């Protein structure tokens, strides 16, 4: 497996807009090369009879059920608003329409 060059690490850092010193480039080149090697090892170990998964345990939906219950009427909600128009909150315009 080819090693990552210092120039390749510098190029990736430039794309990510990260400024690295010469010492950091040398250190990261070795570390990133190890990481790429570890990922390649995992790819070799993966067996065809093991299905891909995003999580080792089954996930369940933990949100509450959607139940209709009493709430404020639109009139009550708008009662404390500084300005309302056509049954809605009126707010200052922040975008110009051209």
UniProtKB/TrEMBL annotation:
Which UniProt key words apply to this protein? ATP-binding, Ligase, Nucleotide-binding, Protein biosynthesis, Transferase
Q: What class of enzyme is it?
A: ligase
Q: Does the keyword Transferase apply?
A: yes
**Which chain positions lie within coiled-coil regions?**
none
A GO BP term here is: translation
- InterPro entries (alphabetical): Asp/Glu-ADT_sf_sub_c, GatC
List the catalysed reactions.
Answer: L-glutamyl-tRNA(Gln) + L-glutamine + ATP + H2O = L-glutaminyl-tRNA(Gln) + L-glutamate + ADP + phosphate + H(+); L-aspartyl-tRNA(Asn) + L-glutamine + ATP + H2O = L-asparaginyl-tRNA(Asn) + L-glutamate + ADP + phosphate + 2 H(+)
Its Enzyme Commission number(s) read 6.3.5.-
Q: Which domain of life is it from?
A: Bacteria
Q: Name one GO molecular function term.
A: transferase activity
Q: Which family does it belong to?
A: Belongs to the GatC family.
So what does this one do? Allows the formation of correctly charged Asn-tRNA(Asn) or Gln-tRNA(Gln) through the transamidation of misacylated Asp-tRNA(Asn) or Glu-tRNA(Gln) in organisms which lack either or both of asparaginyl-tRNA or glutaminyl-tRNA synthetases. The reaction takes place in the presence of glutamine and ATP through an activated phospho-Asp-tRNA(Asn) or phospho-Glu-tRNA(Gln).
Question: How would you summarize the oligomeric state and partners of this protein?
Answer: Heterotrimer of A, B and C subunits.
Its protein name is Aspartyl/glutamyl-tRNA(Asn/Gln) amidotransferase subunit C
What is the protein's species of origin?
Allobranchiibius huperziae
UniProt lists the gene as gatC
